[in-house]
Amino acid sequence: MPNIPLRVNSLATEHPNNAQNSDKMPTFEEIFSHLSAITGQNTPHIIALLPRCDANWPVAVLADRLKQAHARQPLHLHLCAQHQAPWLLALTNCDAFTSSAREQIKVIAEAQVSGCHRIKLASTQLIIDIHQGEPLSQLKALLAPNEASQAIHSWLVDQDLLDEAIIWQMARLSQDNANVLIADAKFSDEKRSDVRLATPGNISADNASSGTDSNSKPAAATANELTERVTKAGFTCYRLNLSAKDDRLMTLADKPSKASKDIAMQERRALRRQQNDGLAFNPLHQGYAGETAIIGGGVASANLALSLAERGKSVSLFCMDKAPGEQASGNKQGAIYPLLTPEHGSLSHYFLQGYLFSRQRIAHLVDAGHDIPHDFCGVLQTGHDERSHKRLAKIVNAQPWADSIAQAVNATEATTLAGVTIEHEGIYYLLGGWVSPQAFTRAAISLAEQLGKQSTHYQCQITAIRFEDQQWYLSAVQQGQRQEFGPFANLVLANGRHLTDFSQTAQLPISGFRGQVSHIPARAPLAELKTVLCAHGYLTPAHDRLHCTGASYVKDASNLDYSAVEQVENLDKIRTSYGGDWTKAVDITGHSARVGVRMVTRDHAPMMGCAPDFEAILAAYGEHQHTKESAKYWQATPAPVHHGLYILGGLGSRGLTSGPLAAEILAAQLCGELLPATNDILALLNPNRMWMRKLIKGKAL
User: Do residues 529 and 520 lie in contact, with contact meaning Cβ atoms separated by under 8 Å?
Assistant: First the structure.
């Protein structure tokens, strides 16, 4: 099909001065006005931008959209950004963003952490997912959304980045009627680019993943050849001429024929099926239509309630206490910093992403007017014995960490940063700090309630849960009275140490550890402490004239009473970790402390996702014992789960770092969205992972 001139203004609001201004950057509405035919008025536009590293158009396009406070519909933008992309750094100087948003983007850009980083702006009317890293690897690692309407509607892509593999990954993540807008500042049909293409013909799932064809060498493509490849993947293709001097800003290059579109849809389904087949051990079922019940009152449940409320979902929250944040999330101060490992695998990667998201979430709540005592004053981690010193050295030397993520510091530098004498070298986390977990929890619940569609039940102890007629019912004792709540379409257990109280979850491989945090009066020279210290224990700078230090770590403790022994142990941790005279000011004689229980998994990763059906697993295991054949069975057969029941727990001692992101991922899963997490992270968080790791290898349960 020949190029057809398309007057953009015929699709958008007419601007009287357009003829005079036609040499300027087209507005966001002009570029994407055709989306009104794709999405309904109440559904978000979901658009992906894939610029070159040195592109200049993303800043202008995003600035224009941000200035449109009157925008009719929510917008979800996916920005694929190579590390250190100049255009991403340029966004930090874009006046259209608030100062808080610019700071968040700056942090993400400078951290250079691969994967998805989510920013919520304009009361969540605008969500930006920044996918950092090499574009193809980032796209391949994303899961196509379960809900078709949540797939990407349109792509704006630099021509030089489009190759066969990227085109098909875009297709896998897109709606069937999605468009591709190809940006070319010097567009000409005869221009050749560095586009790499495989030979003509249908693309197999394997070739779509690798972007290569074993029988040919990659070749450059003309603009027309590239258009043909885009339409063969099922897209309608537009050309965006950013240097046009007339009204031909956008032209319809081509659209697929019915026959080619049918073939493309088959290829897309094959790619998605291949993806789903690889997830048999970790089913990612979305929630059912209807109300969701959440049991819990801490950081995890509060952030989940907020994430669902932001999506307009009806939620009932059940908390056993008089107010939220009175269990493990009730400490006066909690440290926020990543859990890094020398090999920097999925666990380390997840905690880095969670670390950045928690900072963003706190900033969002503070911007909304909530009082959350916090200070991103940095965290200084040092060793406390020979083994821990060696491990920290391995961590800081194993990866080329960005300075904002982890810096190696000597004892002199550590002393300057801390404000008190530190005798050891260590790692400094510039972006770390502390926050009041209780205030964080209460602010999240408060904002969720303000957004509406949430009811909260306090002093309500859930004693049993049951699944009946495809709905969930809760048995409870509320203020001494027995009650029943329900039906609920979905039920999320985010109730900390009570996670295993129910028959459906009693076998989860997770343990409770008692932790006593001691409260220390702020006295000189201890009061000079400027950063959070972490060694054998942790110590925070003063807030309200108190420091927090601890915490003890006692498995399956029989009670939550104050312990004089653990109080002394907390003191010993500080004095054996640091030898400065300032440690003499650490005073525990006031017997002030707080005790909570942290739920911990063996691999230190949280549990997030569908609740495994252990009885069904055992029954299948009885028929498929540990053999090579049984391994194939478990690799190919969807793992048994309780339908409509989800787990959000096991946050351990760094729940402030890991919990908010896990809640956001689960909310996206419940709503069938494109998840802000890659395949390896989702496998890491799978509540069923301990059992399935053995079964898919043919080992004994």
Answer: no
- pLDDT confidence bin for 277, thresholds 50/70/90: confident
pLDDT band at 579 (very low <50, low <70, confident <90, very high): confident
pLDDT digits (tens, 9 = 90+) for 78-94: 999 999 999 999 999 88
Positive or negative: CA dihedral 139, 145, 148, 154: negative
CB-CB contact of 62 with 91 (8 Å): yes
Please name which of 306, 222, 199, 240 lies closest in space to residue 31, comparing C-alpha atoms: 240
Q: Specify whether the CB–CB gap between 86 and 118 falls below 8 A.
A: no
Q: How far apart are CA 585 and CA 653, in angstroms?
A: 26
The number of C-alpha atoms within 13 Å of 145 and in the hemisphere containing its C-beta is 26
Give the pair of three-digit tokens for residue 429: 């986390």
pLDDT at residue 32 in the model = 67
Which domains, ranges and CATH numbers included, belong to the chain? 4-277 (3.40.50), 292-325+439-507+603-614+643-687 (3.50.50.60), 379-430+511-600 (3.30.9.10)
Q: What are phi and psi of 314, to 5 degrees?
A: -80, 130
**Cβ–Cβ < 8 Å for 597, 557:** yes
Tell me what pLDDT residue 57 has.
84
Query: Of 76 and 36, which is predicted with more confidence?
Result: 76
pLDDT in tens, 356-373: 999 999 999 999 999 999
Enumerate the β-bridge partners of residue 222: 192
Please give the backbone phi and psi of residue 458, each rounded to the nearest 5 degrees, phi first: -100, 165
Question: DSSP readout, 118-167?
Answer: EEEETTTTEEEEEEES-HHHHHHTSPPPSSGGGSEEEEEEEGGG--HHHH
Q: Which residue in 164, 157, 165 sits closest to 229, CA to CA? A: 164
β-strand pairing of 75-81 with 115-121: unpaired
Closest CA to 143 of 322, 276, 299: 276
Which has the closest alpha carbon to 231: 178, 184, 306?
178
What is the structure's pLDDT at 269? 95
Q: What is the DSSP letter of 562?
A: -
| Surface-to-core class of residue 258, CB atoms within 10 Å of its CB (0-12 exposed, 13-18 middle, 19+ buried) | exposed
14, pLDDT greater than 90: no
List Cα–Cα distances, 600 to 37, 485, 493, 511, 555, in angstroms: 49, 29, 15, 5, 10
Going from the C-alpha of 402 to that of each of 269, 409, 429, 613, the distances in angstroms are 39, 14, 10, 42
For 436-482, the pLDDT digits (tens) are 999 999 999 999 999 988 999 999 999 999 999 999 999 999 988 99
What is the b/e burial string over 3-25, where b = at least 16 CB atoms within 10 angstroms of the residue's CB?
Answer: beebebbebbeeeeebeeebeeb
pLDDT band at 150 (very low <50, low <70, confident <90, very high): very high
pLDDT given for residue 245 in this prediction: 55
CA distance 119 to 601: 29
Q: What token pair was written down for 172?
A: 């896998």
Q: What is the dihedral of CA 232, 238, 244, 245, to 10 degrees?
A: 130
- Cβ contacts of residue 209 below 8 Å, gap of 6+? 140, 165
**Tens digit of each residue's pLDDT (9 = 90 or more) over 585-611:** 999 999 999 999 999 999 999 999 999
**Pairwise CA distance, residues 79 & 130, whole Å:** 5
Bridge partners, residue 157, by sequence: 50, 182
Task: Give the residue with greater pLDDT, 14 vs 629.
Answer: 629
Alpha-carbon distance of 557 to 560, in angstroms, equals 7
User: Between β-strands 511-521 and 4-6, what pairing exists: parallel, antiparallel or unpaired?
Assistant: unpaired
Average pLDDT, the chain: 87
Amino acid 239: pLDDT: 87
